[in-house]
Amino acid sequence: MNKVTGFLFVLLFSTVFCLAQESATSVSNFSFVSFQYDLGRTSPANTYFPKTKAFQGIEFTFGKTNFTNELEWARQLNFPRTGISVSYSDFGNKEKIGSAISVIPFLDFPIFRKWSNRFDANIGIGASYFDVIYDLESNVTNQAISTHITWAFRSNIRYDFLRFKNGKSQIVLGYYHNSNGHVRLPNYGLNTFLLGLNTEFNFNKKAVTDLSFDAPITNKNSSLQTYYCYRFGLGQNVLTKFDDHKREVYTVSASLGRIKNKTFKYGVGMYYRFYESYYNHIQKEGELINDMYPDLKKNPILKASSFGVFADGEVLLSHIGLEMQIGLNFYKPFYKVDWKLNQGEIIYDGSYQLGELNWYYNVKHLISSRLGLKYYAFDNNKSPVHNLFIGAFINANLGQADFSEVGLGYVFCPSQKKK
Phi/psi at 110 (nearest 5 deg)? Predict the structure, then answer.
């Protein structure tokens, strides 16, 4: 995931926290299905990237509305719609880039309410399967996707140009991104910009009355919980594109903070990470170790580790959590080798020029980020004292993927305060 992708997703994700208020008090709950056709362009991911025709995609969506006072997260987020989409994407070059099938859970919520009630935003994170990937011998020019399974990020802004009794048709402006999270290199990722036509059909309508649309402002019984969280994770990455053997990253973290209104979770914490790829490179006295950084051979376990602190934000949707972190690495000594090997380039005489430890290195060395999905064993809407979760995460140095991870965690909430 490159820095542009990280910025755009953070920007869209953050809009969940600032939804416009509704004025109506009587609405209907319903389920919906939609069909969408997309036409767009996929940006070249690297030098000599294969030529492409227009991107084309079809998408099927199933979802529902959440107009209910019983779900605190729905009230706090002004009742977004939720669902899951399944899509097929043709990137315009079947031989070199291929096609992908994606499954993505999503949130859908109104935007620009001050000007019009016809706009909504749709954001989601899931996974894709690609039938064609990078290969050093047969497909070297496609350095965007090097694993069959990738992360999938989607964000759409949609406008209702036609409304009918049980549905609507929409014009869609969208951005799609695919990346494997550094589990194999090269991993430049695919970025696609598109226009789409979406038609939605509603069914199972049930009227809802006395709905508290203004709950985030006037709710006098807002709750505040203290939480303590402990997490253990197992990730994978590769060191360079010249060594595509995936190795483990072991992570441990502890954090504490508050949960507001059973929906907004925020806190601070610290983490420890051990990179097996770093350790193996030191033990085997790989490139740069003896010539430039022999000090790394002293206590290689410690030198292959990383310590840091972070600030954490999460939106809780009953059993589902959408998490985002920003952190600071205060110890990651091997990263200078990582940077020099991965940021270098082949120059005119065919030799490999190492990357420079410039200001950009210093920024990426310092700042870590993290994005992921969690599934909780117990419904957060019921404010459980004890909870367990499993999650999938992509970790990054600033906005560039570092490793993908599956994690297990425990959350303890000893008390709940009513304001």
Answer: -70, 150
Q: Measuring CA to CA, which residue among 107, 276, 55, 110 is closest to residue 183?
A: 276
Strand-pairing partners, residue 394, are 371, 404
Q: What gap in Å lies between CA 87 and CA 98, rounded to an integer?
A: 14
What span, in angstroms and rounded, lies between the C-alpha atoms of 181 and 209? 45
Three-state DSSP at 377 gives coil
**pLDDT (tens digit per residue) in 119-160:** 999 999 999 999 999 988 899 999 999 999 999 999 999 999
Residue 59: strand pairing partners: 36, 87
CA distance 361 to 304: 18
In one-letter notation, the amino acid at residue 167 is G
Q: How far apart are the first and last CA of the chain?
A: 41
Please state, in angstroms and rounded to a whole number, the distance separating the CA atoms of residues 349 and 404. 36
To which residue do tokens 């993290």 refer?
A: 370
- Nearest CA to 312 out of 254, 249, 267 is that of 267
Q: Express each pLDDT in 70-97 by its tens digit.
A: 888 988 888 899 999 999 999 999 999 9
- The whole-angstrom separation of Cα 278 and Cα 229 is 28
Strand partners, 29: 206
**206 token code pair:** 């049930």
The answer, as to whether pTM is greater than 0.90, is: no
The CA distance from 250 to 269, in Å, is 17
To 10 degrees, what angle do helices 359-366 and 335-342 make?
Answer: 130
